Automatic annotation (TrEMBL):
One Gene Ontology MF term: metal ion binding
Cited InterPro entries: ACMSD, Amidohydro-rel, Metal_Hydrolase
Signal sequence range: none
Gene Ontology CC annotations of this record: cytosol
Pfam families, sorted: Amidohydro_2
Enzymatic class: lyase
Native source organism of the sequence: Mycobacterium intracellulare
Family: Belongs to the metallo-dependent hydrolases superfamily. ACMSD family.
Protein name per the record: 2-amino-3-carboxymuconate-6-semialdehyde decarboxylase
Length: 326
């Protein structure tokens, strides 16, 4: 099984806050196998050495039946609101660490880098570096950039570079819309992320990004969030609204242009996802190594009662194709 949705982080990061204004991410060691992620003086999350200890990851992969992980940065490190100069440096630290992991265990790890998307031209240049120098499979990006949706024309140089260099784009929700109303009950993560991913996907479709970049490969986290469930409503308003859109076809026709991970935590939901877009557009994702991760990997997929050929495609074959391993 290949897991396309995992996160990692180097054990230490430079103190960018000493050189650049703003609240920069800092790792504070709390034990030999743990650390706190701090943003300035605010605690963001406690993490374990599963984030940086490759041998620990490999042991967990054996337990969970995972042949290969794709390591992506932790989304809080996107830092699009901070200095592009500093974020470019932090991105390179992470990208090189991920590339080192892939070089150390090329049969077990693949990687996705990160870029300072607040500076799209620099981000485009770094895509070339990520693909040609570091040999990573693509990039992970946030669902918005300083509150701008992903259809913003300023981002076109970045998307063009990804399409030109066959870089997979993994869209992960972050800084979710309506966060001021989602402060209780874990709603920012459970509901906010799903709505945020749906907004990103709809913007990519109706803003014409997929038309302008027909060779662009985009993977949506968490089964696409609420996107597919809301797509009939999106299309209904597309048919009956005077709002200007830039897609050349019906919104529903673009559902199969995206890839989706299987991280839905429910057998029926995974079966419905595969039934909607096909096994050739779905891959396994777990959110390892965080507490909410699906473990063992692909549990909902394996329990969905799908034909063996479909399960095999989602577990391995589709991932091999989009990672360039086939």
């Amino acid at each position: 099984m290949i897991d396309l949705h995992t996160h990692g982080l180097p054990r230490s990061l430079p103190n960018f806050g000493r050189r650049f204004a703003g609240s920069w991410l800092e790792l504070v060691e709390t034990g030999p196998c743990s650390a706190d992620i701090m943003l300035g003086d605010r605690h963001f999350r406690s993490i374990t050495d599963q984030c940086w200890n490759l041998e620990r990851r490999l042991a967990d992969m054996e337990t969970d039946g995972v042949a290969r992980q794709v390591i992506s940065p932790i989304p809080i490190t996107f830092s699009y609101g901070l200095s592009a100069d500093g974020v470019a440096e932090m991105a390179r630290v992470q990208n090189e660490w991920i590339a080192d992991a892939v070089r150390a265990y090329p049969a077990r790890f693949s990687g996705l880098g990160t870029v300072p998307l607040q500076d799209p031209d620099r981000a485009a240049e770094m895509v070339v570096e990520i693909r040609q120098v570091l040999g990573l499979a693509g990039v992970e990006i946030g669902s918005n950039v300083r509150g701008l949706n992903l259809d913003d024309r300023a981002l076109d140089p970045f998307f063009a570079a990804c399409a030109d260099h066959s870089a997979l784009v993994f869209v992960h929700p972050w800084q979710v819309l309506g966060s001021d109303r989602l402060t209780k009950y874990g709603l920012a993560d459970s509901i906010g992320m799903g709505a945020e991913t749906a907004t990103a996907a709809a913007s990519l479709v109706m803003g014409g990004v997929l038309d302008r970049h027909p060779n662009l490969d985009i993977l949506l986290a968490h089964g696409g969030g609420a996107f597919l469930a809301l797509l009939p409503r999106i299309e209904r308003f597309w048919e009956n609204s005077s709002a200007v859109t830039y897609c050349s076809d019906r919104p529903s026709s673009y559902a199969g242009r995206f890839y989706y991970d299987s991280l839905l935590f429910d057998e029926d939901a995974v079966a419905a996802l595969v039934g909607r877009v096909g096994a050739d557009r779905v891959v396994v994702g777990t959110d390892y190594p965080f507490a909410i991760a699906e473990r063992p990997a692909g549990a909902a997929l394996l329990g969905a009662g799908l034909p063996d050929a479909v399960t095999s495609a989602v577990s391995v074959l589709t991932a091999e194709r989009i990672l360039g391993l086939a």
